[in-house]
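Hello,

Our lab assistant flagged a job as stuck in the queue for most of the afternoon. It eventually completed. Since we weren't sure the result was trustworthy after the delay, we are filing this so someone can double-check. Below is the sequence as submitted and the structure that was eventually returned. Let us know if re-running is recommended.
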Amino acid sequence: MPIITISRGSYSKGKAVAEKVAQKLGYECISRDIILEASEEFNVPEIKLIRAIHDAPGILDRLSHEKNRYTAYVQTALLKHFRKDNIVYHGLAGHFFVKGISHVLKIRIIADLEERVRLEMEREGITRAEALHLLKKDDEERRRWSQYLYGTDAWNPSLYDLVLHIHKVSVDDAVDIICHTAGLQAFQATPESKKAMEDRVLAAEVKAALIGIHHAIKISAQDGIVFVRSEATVQQQSSLSHDIEKIAAQISGVKDIRIDVEPIVPFSE
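-- returned structure --
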């Protein structure tokens, strides 16, 4: 059976859909649990990880690269769950982390803005204008976040296999549609897709270990061979390559490391 990721805005009933899908299929349902696990594993305050995968990047984020580092930690924690299959994940970022993995069913849940406003007003005890402002701000934060880290809008329907509008389609209808789709042959795990997931997990683990020493680093993995690409000045190349090899070699599953550190050419008038 496939992994199911459910992306949703606030007050879209995506959480209810995810929990009912998991119950019907006998899957594990996860969301904020991942943040807590990443917080414990990488010794980072939970609130910092929450902000990293929700808030749009500010100037300090761009200079410190903390958002990239914390997102890498969340990605690692989530992918470790995904390798088990039979998972429903609802929340931000999940579909970005598994792009190209064939046994992942990617869902987007949307709801009418007026219904979202009504629920926000009821929960927070605020006016319609205040609720509308908060919802639009939240949606814009999520858009800017995905644009910054992945160069695409999280609302882009091409990112998903199904986009379901909770209006005429009820929560229970959405659950039935998702469960039916999850049973289609196109979304079943294969030896090739499982291997691709294992490669993705290993690459994420290596990135999480290395991103603290160099933010501009790209990692991929294939059959235990890890490919690392980065940039450094001529003076830094040797020491950076040494540090990358030393740290990556300690990670379970790494059989070999291929490092490509390209020289940064100093700017001159």
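-- support follow-up --
The delay was a queue issue, not a problem with the job. The result is valid. The first helix runs from residue 14 to 25. The two ends are 59 Å apart (CA to CA).
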